[in-house]
């Protein structure tokens, strides 16, 4: 008898399972719209020029491989916080932002979950939007928080259920934690407007809720890192204390390098130091200290004005290519194939993903008949579309809908 004979087989990861099916498919027309990673106009992974140049600089500097401190590369975390909160940020300029390097966005969320589970003085319940990124729920449960939901997406309008969202936040027990996607909501591609963010900020203040921002796509929504940071900066300006998880996976294309940051805004420098010390106590027994290379890449880009300009252009280039694919797909479905249904949301949604409104059955048909792979909730990664495959994709959607 094996020690593990009672371990049941778990279900496969829904997104990575799609990649498996895609790889096994031998049809030349196959398209993978499942994974949320940017692809260039030839459907290939894209290493940013800013990243290549940063790596040249790092190689030439012949750095050693010593351990980083527990909270990571200090110059990187400082620059990451500046990118998110803005150079003018009051807590940042008062040395009142506690920040640690993290294992990309997921690791940042996990440190945040663990910190809140241990030190948050209110109810240890976190409200997630419905739907949310699939990893949020297990991640926060494993961190020791109770997971609840608030309304977010309205299937009827294929847009934001703003009334439902406000009602649910107003009905949440005072002091609850609320997870907010800072921009480019995954999986829906539906974000609140700036006016709606201002109202959400007011409700959160009124109910003394605690906002936890997940910012995995800064720059990817609008093409501007400043514009995409609106919600976080607005909340801080309104006097909220926030938690923030940042990822450099998408906006620098550093997926596998696992570069991210977690931060908390605090009252003043003295409080920041206490919070810092407790972040270290959480990180040390988890993984001791974070990896070196990716943090150096991101830091070189963020601290070198020339590379920063190159990077800004590339972020905009990625966002613009995605936006152009939205316009082309909308055109093809409405005027080209005259596919039944309303497709305006393809153009109005933003970020990496579009929630097409395709039903599970139609998604299955697309995979089986057309070799087009996506998640069964009808979400497609817009970055998987390009000039070579978009007509075939539109034609396949048309066939699946008709
Ligand atoms: N949050 C959201 C909403 C995401 O979509 C993702 C990536 N799919 C992440 C966090 C974390 O990604 P990573 O750990 O690769 O930075």
Outline of this structure?
InterPro entries: Aminotransferase_I/II_large, Asp_trans, NHTrfase_class1_PyrdxlP-BS, PyrdxlP-dep_Trfase, PyrdxlP-dep_Trfase_major, PyrdxlP-dep_Trfase_small. The protein is globular.
Structure description:
The protein is of the alpha/beta class and 402 residues long. It has helices at 14-24, 49-60, 74-85, 90-93, 104-119, 136-143, 162-171, 194-206, 225-228, 230-237, 269-287, 293-303, 305-336, 344-348, 360-370, 390-401; strands at 31-32, 97-103, 125-130, 146-151, 153-154, 159-160, 177-181, 210-215, 243-247, 259-265, 353-355, 372-373, 379-381. It contains 16 helices and 13 strands. The strands form 4 sheets. A 7-stranded mixed β-sheet has the order 2-10-9-8-7-3-4, sandwiched between helices. Strands 1-12 form a two-stranded parallel sheet. Helix 8 links the parallel strand 7 (177-181) and strand 8 (210-215). The longest helix has 32 residues, at 305-336. The protein is globular and about 65 Å long. It binds 4'-deoxy-4'-aminopyridoxal-5'-phosphate. Residues 36, 104-106, 133, 181, 186, 214, 216, 247, 249, 255, 260 line the site of 4'-deoxy-4'-aminopyridoxal-5'-phosphate.
